[in-house]
Amino acid sequence: MRDRILNSFLAISFVFLAVACFGGCRGGNAVSISPPANVTADAGKERVILNWSPIANANAYNIYYSTSPGVTKAKGIKVPDEHGPYTARDLQNGATYYFAITAVNEKGESALSREVSAAPSANPPPYAPTYIKAAAEDGKVRVSWADSSGATSYQIYYSRTPGVDKRTGAKVAGAISPQVIPFSNDAPYCFVVTASNANGESATSFEVSATPRKSPPLTVGI
Question: How far, in Å, CA of 102 to CA of 89, rounded?
Fold first, then answer.
């Protein structure tokens, strides 16, 4: 009788544990917070300025960096409990530094953001333009931005897919804010802007997007 009761208890316990673990035991406790997006790295003199789009439910951010690409939480140097924009100081001019950022809240830490890099210089290029906006109109998009101190020219890079950069985007050289670019209606386009002077070209700005239409929507920008 005792054995029968014990076996019944063990069977019920096994079912309970199986149900409790379903969807939870295999992956552990999931952290419901996204990594920072729109991460940029601007090189200055012995410093790099990092910026990113804030995460709504983040309390702080951790920054990981290295002098080698492929930054991870285990291998990168960690700077905890920061907020953007963040300035990494006392860096070596001419060396390239690689950065990735995580968001943190009471539930834990997010995955790493995409990796960005910058090389401090004794004569750095201007900082990336800010306050980028893309206003959709009929058959065109009007891209505007705030001037970057020391810049003598600007470039716009655009693509049909997010994640546009200098390598993948179509380039509009010598752009002037606001710059009007003709496009087909009803197709989304993504944009970033850079600033240049005699010292070189800045990092890319935050990315914005717009879709030209017959009846254009409201401006979308950061």
Answer: 19
